[in-house]
Amino acid sequence: MFKKLLVVAFIATLSIQCKSQSEALKPSGKITNNENPKLVIGIVVDQMRYDYLTRFYNRFGDGGFKRMINDGFSCKNNHFNYIPTYTGPGHASVYTGTTPQNHGIISNYWYNKFENKDVYCASDIAVDPVGTTDRAGKMSPHRMKVTSIADQNRLHTQLRGKTIGISLKDRGAILPAGHTANAAYWFHGKNEGKWITSSHYMNKLPKWVTLFNKSGKANSYIKEWNTLYNIDSYVESGDDLNNFEGGFVGKEKAVFPYDLKALKDKNKGYDIIKATPFGNDLTTDFALAAIDGEKLGEDTITDFLTVSYSSTDYVGHNFGVNSKEIEDTYLRLDKALELLFNGLDEKVGNGNYTVFLTADHGAVQVPSYLKSLKIPAGYFEMDVLSEKLKEYTKENYNVDDLIIKLSNNQVFFDYNKIRANKINIADLQNDLSHFLLQYKQISHVYTREQLEANEYITGVSYLVQKGFNQKRSGDIVFVMDPATISYSKTGSTHGSGLNYDTHVPLLFYGKGIKKGATVSKTKITDIAPTIAALLGISFPNGATGDVLPFVLK
Predict the structure, then answer these.
(1) Alpha-carbon torsion 290, 293, 299, 302, what sign?
(2) Cα Rg of the chain, angstroms
(3) DSSP H/E element including 390
(4) Considering all CA atoms of the chain, what is the largest pairwise distance in Å, rounded to the nearest integer?
């Protein structure tokens, strides 16, 4: 009898254990991983050279850039590893972990040889504007050929982890957020001054966005822009009055202060906000509203918020990297970052989120300024080169318009005319390569045949190859001399593979991140794999970068 009772007790215990294990194996409907941050915030500062961190460091407060530097990890020798260094490719490369060679965003605009027209990196005629009737809303990430790190998080969490992308620029919001984002929002200025999106994401703006647009926030920044501190203390930049700045239509001199209310109508309405530090303030306001409106970071499933600060680029293009305006913009951005981080502490909790901050490219000193200091620099007339190429091919091949397009320092051939006239493509490439290399202000030339037949591992050829997409790029690529640009005589621009364009900040902060710094060389394509390793998820499907193990705890 006693043995029977033992057997019955054993079977009962086993049954309870099996039931308990069975319950444990049932899906709960919720993915939890307490080791992961609740929210990852990716910040891209448009046109931020690395030396802005050091140049303005003593003027920053403790809660913005310095908080990330002192309490997080700083990669001091971080570079883009391809040409061209533009906004579209930059944002795509940061978040996909690869270069234009693979993700396909070869520029902001490029010549589509299959459609025989110029295309924009985020344009999409198949979608409808949402929040406006303007064509500014006809945008999507469909031209980006691979996934972003935000896409991978969505896939890993069975779409439970949210992704929201925010930027004044459409491409700065759309490309980082990826294909599967819940939303990407960008600012439509002109006579509307509101945040919009497209039907790629939704058919109607959420209530919180509509309320934000009606709040008058954008209008509140149509005010005077003067320096945050006494202008005489801005010794980290050049004279306020100089010959190297653009300024605004309707104001004779590019000097402080700027009355935005008086200048608004002559400078594309609400678009004037973009070209002042107030555009970054507006972006921060909207980002904080998004955290609340979308309930980001409220559960244990990791969400993504991608924020691109675009005003730094607009100000840099207009006034140049050595201007009082750019200094004031960064001092104000530092305060905007502090506001964002304080909001994250309050809404998500300090220690519950992870942030990385980088840039999409740097910028050159204004070449006319460099020339005034006897530093080699100059301006390149692309229209003149285009005419010279047409004349040369007509004279030597007796064919009109053998070159169909000059785009992004690339030469595109008309293949129909090449076939019709039985011209050897390899010979044509080599001939025009030699012609271009003799041309003043061109330093390097590469043919499609060279880039397809060889694998370069260093130097300019490596950078060109990493930016060369076999299907979308042209037949010849040329590189201009240092500090030589095809641009106006005032303001700064970017696009080269030189240090002033490639060397950008890379800061990590928050959950899972060590404190420290390195001067070892890192690449912009290392960011996405490092975040993937932190989260324990798959790399973006085209990623070619490496994990930075010294960053992670």
Answers:
(1) negative
(2) 26
(3) helix 382-397
(4) 112
**CB neighbour burial string for 77-116, b if at least 16 within 10 angstroms, e if fewer:** ebbbbbbbbbbbbbbbbbbbbbbbbbbbbbbbebbebeee
Sign of CA dihedral 145, 148, 154, 157: positive
Question: Could you tell me the end-to-end alpha-carbon distance of the chain, in angstroms, rounded to an integer?
Answer: 59
Provide φ and ψ at 272, rounded to 5°: -65, -25
Contact criterion met (CB below 8 Å) for 222 and 282: no
Q: Is 96 a catalytic residue?
A: no
CA atoms within 13 Å, Cβ hemisphere of 506: 27
CA–CA gap between residue 320 and residue 472 (Å, rounded): 32
State both tokens at 462.
Answer: 């490596």
**Cα–Cα distance measured from residue 73 to residue 95, given in angstroms and rounded to the nearest whole number:** 19
CA distance 41 to 62: 19
- In contact, 78 and 504? CB cutoff 8 Å: yes
300 Cβ contact list (under 8 Å, min separation 6)? 30, 31, 32, 33, 34, 36, 38
C-alpha distances out from residue 284 to 50, 106, 107, 243, Å: 22, 29, 27, 33
Q: How many residues does the chain have?
A: 553
DSSP 425-480: HHHHHHHHHHHHHTSTTEEEEEEHHHHHH----SHHHHHHHHT--TTTS-SEEEEE
The catalytic position among 13, 54, 85, 87 is 87
pLDDT at 16 (0 to 100):
41
Q: Which residue has the tokens 């064509």?
A: 135
pLDDT in tens, 392-442: 999 999 999 999 999 999 999 999 999 999 999 999 999 999 999 999 999
* Cβ-Cβ contacts under 8 Å for 211 (sequence gap 6 or more): none
Encoded tokens for 412:
């595109």
Token output for 226 = 């003067």
* Residue 323, token pair as written in the block: 């201007």
- Confidence bin at 27 (pLDDT 50/70/90): very low
Distances (CA, A) of 413 to 6, 148, 155, 279, 386: 88, 32, 41, 41, 13
pLDDT in tens, 528-547: 999 999 999 999 999 999 99
Q: Which of 143, 194, 149, 148 is nearest to 168 (CA)?
A: 194
> What is the distance between the alpha carbons of residues 264 and 262, in angstroms, rounded to a whole number?
6
Could you identify the residue written with the tokens 């060590």?
Answer: 514
* Helix extents (H) in 215-323: 217-220, 260-263, 278-293, 311-319
* 73 and 507 Cβ atoms separated by less than 8 Å: yes
- pLDDT, one tens digit per residue, over 481-525 is 999 999 999 999 999 999 999 999 999 999 999 999 999 999 999
